[in-house]
Structures are given as structure tokens and as C-alpha cells.
Amino acid sequence: MPESLNLIFFGNSLLSYLICAAIFLGISFAAKVFKIIFLKRLKSWAEKTSNTLDDFLVEIIEKIAVPFLYLFGLYLGIKSLTLNDYLVRIINTLAIAVLTVFSVRLIIRLVNYGFEVYWHKSDKGQSLKHSLSGVLKVVKFSIWVLALIFYLDNLGFKITTVIAGLGIGGVAIALAAQAVLKDLFSYFAIVIDRPFEIGDFIIVGDLLGTVEHVGIKTTRIRSLGGEELVFSNSDLTDSRLRNYKRMQKRRVVFHLGVTYDTPLSKLKEMPGAIAEIIKKVKDALFDRAHFSAYGDFNLVFEVVYYVLSSDYNKYMDIQQEINFSIKAELEKRGIEFAFPTQTVHLAK
């Protein structure tokens, strides 16, 4: 062995540094070969399958496992050297930090993949994906907090004392931020129970519009007038809400009045004539038509039918077609619509 290899630099021989470099380069070379040859084949195999699990595993290997191998090789190489206690503590601290970060990245990717699978299996589309993205942010924050606690515990901090302090501080924060926390829990209730989704037309009290955004604190609705309505999530969960998007069919009740001088025979023909008109209209289901009341100036007929759609424009198109047909039918039969009139009798 050449004497130059025994030369000491910073407490280690030149041979020790060469061994350190050899360990790092050897593991790095193995990782590179694995990435170029085996991982490339795994990618081509995964692309041929319809399953998403193999694509996810390939991504985990490429984005997490391979970079971790490089850092692991560097760690093993450095650990082969003789270092003072201070440097050893620094290296161990950094190693724990790296291990924690890679573990968190792996857990988050697993959670994210689980959410993606759940979204693809459901039939809720982009609205569910948007809701899950908000939940995912909260889950990621929670995972990072737990990872930080784990890291501090491995560094020797008294975590029980820290957690107790956080508990007392958490109570104080919770008391000061009750409204925010209430909206946050209401957000989870909206995401899990899904009383409405993005794109639904809802009515809350005397306000109505289409849901555009469901956030952690607020939900934004676009009104029919075009302005944006902002509700806190707790307001929505505490209110009686009507969701017209979920309506499978719309029940329609309308009245029409004819003059008092209409003959009884023609009055008896009207329910059947109205029924025939509605039955001919597409996506309209006739229910009933009756001579229902004697009005102040007209004979009142009440008509009930169903529109087999939740679309408001479709309902108005159907109602318009029915109104045109009834008008034409009554004109053909010589029946007049009533309107408010007064008869004045002059005493002699």
C-alpha cells in the first residue's frame, strides 16, 4: 500500500476518504443503472396496463426511492469516516430530517393516490375533486405537523411538555377563533354529506343562485342577477336549503279563469281538452284538471302537471307551449277568458 494513502487529513487517512467516495459512487452507480435499465422497463410495462396502481408505484420509485438511494449512499460514505461527536450529531440530525421529509412525501403521495382512486370511482366529476382538494390540504397540514413532532422527539425534545403547551394554547386559540373553526367543521360536513355541489342551483332564505366555489371558510354563489353571493359555511349548514339541481321532476300548478256566461256544457269539456293538450307536450306528465272555484269575476280551473326535468328553461318552454295551445283551444270553442270587470246599476 502506498504511504500516501496513510496521510491523515482532519482525523482520517486518505484511504478512508477514498473508501467514503467509493461507497457513495458505488451506490450512486447502482441507483443510476437501476433508473436507466430497470425503471425504464417498468415504465414501459406500466404504460401498457390499464391499472393505475403500477403507474403509481413507478412514480414512487422514480420520485422518492431513487433520490433516497443517492442520499443513503452519501450517508453511509460519511459514516465510514471517523468524526468528532459534534459532527456526528449534526449528521444524525440531518439524516433524521431527510428521513422524515421522504417519509412525509411518501405518505402524502399515498393519501393523494387514495383520493384520486375514490374520485375516479365516484360519478361526481369535478365538483367532488374540488371538494377533496380542500380536504387534502388539511390532511397534508396535519401530516406535516405530526412529522415535525416526530422529528423534535427524535432530537431529544420533551414532546409531552410541548404538546401540553400546545393543548393550552389550542384551547385559547379555539376560544378566539370559534367562528373560523365552526366554518371549517361545516366545510367537512358539506364535503362528506354533500347537500350541494358546484354547479347546483340552490335557494337559501330569499337568496338564490348557482354554486361556484366551496372553500374552507366560505362558499360563493352566482345569483341570477350576476352578482356573487358569499356565505359562510356555517350559515349554509344551519339554514334550510333547497337544491333544485337534485329535483328529478317539477310539479307545476296553474289556474285559469273563464267568464261566468260560459255554458255548462262547455265548462264540462274543458278538463278533458286541457288534459289532451298537456299529454301531447313532450316531457310533460298530466296529473289533473278541475273546475275548482267560483271567483269574484271568473270561473276558476286548477291544472296540475309534472315537468320531467329540473331545468328551469325547459319548464318555461313547456308552460309556454301549453299556454299557447289552451288559448287556441278556447278560441276554437268560443270560450272567453275572464278579466276583472264591474257592473254599475244606476237607481232611477
Write the layout of secondary structure elements.
Layout: E1 8-9, E2 12-13, H1 14-48, H2 52-79, H3 85-121, H4 126-154, H5 159-176, H6 178-193, E3 201-204, E4 207-214, E5 218-223, E6 228-232, H7 233-238, E7 241-243, E8 250-258, H8 264-279, E9 284-294, E10 299-307, H9 312-333
Antiparallel strand pairs: 1-2, 3-4, 3-7, 4-5, 5-6, 8-10, 9-10
Helix pairs in contact: 1-2, 2-3, 3-4, 8-9
What does this structure look like?
This protein has 348 residues and is α+β, with helices and mostly antiparallel strands. The protein folds into 3 domains: 3-164; 187-243, SH3 type barrels (Roll); 250-333, Alpha-Beta Plaits (2-Layer Sandwich). It is built from 9 helices and 10 strands. It has helices at residues 14-48, 52-79, 85-121, 126-154, 159-176, 178-193, 233-238, 264-279, 312-333; strands at 8-9, 12-13, 201-204, 207-214, 218-223, 228-232, 241-243, 250-258, 284-294, 299-307. The strands form 3 sheets. Strands 6-5-4-3-7 form a 5-stranded antiparallel β-sheet. A 3-stranded antiparallel β-sheet has the order 8-10-9. α3 packs antiparallel against α4 and α8 runs antiparallel to α9. The longest helix is centred in the first third of the chain and has 37 residues, at 85-121. The protein is elongated and about 135 Å long. The model has no long low-confidence stretch (mean pLDDT 80).
Find the structural class using helix and strand composition.
alpha+beta
Count of beta strands:
10
* Strand residue content: 15-25%
- Mean pLDDT, to the nearest integer, reads 80
Q: Which regions contain 5 or more consecutive residues with pLDDT less than 50? A: none
Helix tally? 9
Total domain count: 3
- Strand sequence of the main sheet, in spatial order? 6-5-4-3-7
Pattern of helices and strands: EEHHHHHHEEEEHEEHEEH
